[in-house]
Write a structure and sequence with these properties.
The protein is an alpha/beta fold. It has two domains: 141 residues, Rossmann fold, CATH 3.40.50; 122 residues, Rossmann fold (3-Layer(aba) Sandwich), CATH 3.40.50. The protein has eight helices and eight strands; from the N terminus they run βαβαβαβαβαβαβαβα. The strands form two sheets. Strands 2-1-3-4 form a four-stranded parallel sheet, with helices on both faces. Strands 6-5-7-8 form a four-stranded parallel sheet, sandwiched between helices. Helix 4 packs antiparallel against helix 8. The termini are far apart.
């Protein structure tokens, strides 16, 4: 019987707390997938890097490795950077069968997990405000891929309708617009009694703290509107189950991601020049360089390394 292993591929962060949360989730997955040898690693900043995890699985006799992106949506990291890492290892180790799973994407478990995090914020609030008088703001990471950015709008719409909010808005922590500060300045003018800001993120880090800092600023600037912070997804059981499902999909051959609006395959408005771009990684300069510790410094919304990411 083929010895199958699972490699959980995280982005990595300059922030130790984000790395700790990712490692905790990887621990949950090891328990959830007892029939597999499981390792985890990072694309940039933190250690171990993905190659180190793959080498450990190889040393322990893995004959097939399922690589699962630890990311919500398929933007440049899932479409280019991770395949570059996996393909490079596969080329050097032809005796090992390499399978690449898909991102967590939009599915019922993830939407349910998001709803529960929002409900936690409502339960912690001192006042009771009807959802019809509440605006939900869903915050995405923001990428240079309009297909990935649009997924945040779909998540927001499903939560809006499913939970019965009076309105919903979308903003981003960087790269895409509107940023959270601009989004909140617009949202308060719509006249809702309460605004719930929900970061649709897996883990903490520089960007989540930036989002919450923008909320604090908006609270001071707009004291007549209650603005509350919802917790991010983290290791919600629905997230863990979705990761496990991605591993099983890869084995059954049902792991194809949706490439219908991929800017590397189709001429998407505003990104026409990206069609056919080479599948190459862009993280060599920060791979394994280490973190900045807990509460890593926020260099500001315009500080991104050259491909437009700041974790």
């Amino acid at each position: 019987m083929t010895k199958t292993a699972v490699m959980i591929c995280g982005h990595g962060s300059r922030d130790d707390a984000a790395v700790d949360e990712f490692n905790a989730l990887a621990g949950h997955l090891k328990k959830r997938l007892p029939g597999y040898d499981v390792e985890s690693g990072f694309l940039e900043f933190a250690r171990p890097v993905i190659r180190d995890g793959l080498e450990k699985l190889k040393a322990r006799g893995a004959e097939r490795i399922i690589c699962i992106p630890g990311m919500l949506f398929a933007a440049g990291h899932v479409k280019n950077d991770l395949p570059s890492e996996v393909n490079g290892f596969a080329a050097e180790n032809p005796e090992i069968e390499m399978l690449f799973g898909r991102e967590l994407a939009i599915e019922a478990r993830m939407i349910a997990a998001a709803a529960m995090r929002i409900e936690e914020a409502e339960a912690a609030a001192t006042a009771k405000v009807p959802r019809a008088e509440t605006l939900l703001m869903v915050v995405g990471r923001g990428t240079g891929d309009s297909d990935a950015n649009s997924n945040v709008s779909k998540v927001a719409r499903m939560l809006w309708e499913g939970m019965g909010f009076g309105w919903a808005e979308v903003s981003y922590s960087g790269v895409a617009s509107p940023l959270v500060d601009a989004g909140l300045a617009h949202a308060v003018r719509l006249g809702y009694r309460r605004i719930i800001v929900f970061p649709y993120f897996l883990f903490t880090g520089v960007l989540v703290r930036r989002i919450y800092a923008w909320v604090d600023e908006a609270r001071a600037k707009f004291p007549d509107v209650e603005i509350i912070k919802a917790p991010y997804l983290n290791d919600h059981p629905g997230v863990i189950e979705t990761f496990a499902e991605r591993a099983e999909e890869a084995l059954s051959g049902d792991n194809a991601m949706n490439c219908q609006l991929c800017k590397y395959r189709e001429q998407i408005i505003g990104y026409e020049a990206d069609v056919g771009a080479p599948q190459a990684g862009h993280h060599h300069h920060v791979r394994g360089v280490g973190t900045d510790g807990h509460a890593a410094h926020d260099h500001g919304p315009e500080h991104h390394h050259h491909h437009g990411k700041d974790r």
